[in-house]
């Protein structure tokens, strides 16, 4: 696993050394597979390339069900994970080390209590999961498809790592840590209005056959999921996202320091 990483670990940002970029062939392959990365301005691509090297130095990849995580897979995941923190910095991901990669969707055991107090055990199919203070779990099948799914605004890596950003100040609630009460209030007002409109659109589509939204309907399930789903689209298909959520583009530009 990570043969390139093992060979170059001594040069990737260890004390007294200068971080070394991802090998050219490996980086170009990543850009080829994920065109939304290739469309970044040249300076951002270079900054991302260096950030990925530092990210890989501090994270541990584990393949589930005998999956071998290759250099190509690790760099692909790291590049997409680093996109939201390109200007924020890797400190936003310093609360965990592990990244677990499954071949495909995984089944998670869940427990729920209904209004009558009856406990129900069930299994939920997941493409990824982010645990507070714990690892990020991803389906490689869906990570590998992210280049093609960008047209629809989908990206499982960004989704789960946005949850990590959201969790920095506690449980995921759709609002990341912000510098002031005023900033928090402005975030809440803008996000809540967009969330309410989106839930109404999803409900109209599901109940009355209205045109479904372009954004993944899963975002209507909770504010935290709306934040993650919206950020997926914002980072991989900004133009289409802005057509539907111009107010959120402005909000996200300010938070992620895109402008």
Any key phrases for this structure?
single chain, 259 residues, alpha/beta, Cyclin A, domain 1, Collagenase (Catalytic Domain), 2 domains, four-stranded mixed β-sheet, two-stranded antiparallel sheet, 12 helices, 6 strands
Give me a quick take on this structure.
The chain is α/β, with parallel strands linked by helices and 259 residues long.
Work out the helicity level: 40-55%
Strand order of the largest sheet: 1-2-6-5
Write down how many β-strands occur, each being a DSSP E stretch of 2 or more residues. 6
Largest sheet: 4 strands, mixed
Mean pLDDT, all residues: 89
Q: Structural class, please?
A: alpha/beta
Shape: globular
* Low-pLDDT ranges: 9-13
CATH architecture of the largest domain: Orthogonal Bundle
Number of helices: 12
Report the portion of residues in β strands.
Answer: 5-15%
Q: What Rg, in angstroms, do the CA atoms define?
A: 19 Å
Description of the molecule:
By secondary structure, the protein is of the alpha/beta class. The chain has two domains: 1-151, Glucose-regulated metallo-peptidase M90, N-terminal domain (Cyclin A, domain 1, Orthogonal Bundle), CATH 1.10.472; 173-259, Collagenase (Catalytic Domain), CATH 3.40.390. The protein is 50% helix and 12% strand. It is built from twelve helices and six strands. The strands form two sheets. A four-stranded mixed sheet has the order 1-2-6-5. Strands 3-4 form a two-stranded antiparallel sheet. Strand 5 and strand 6 form a beta hairpin.
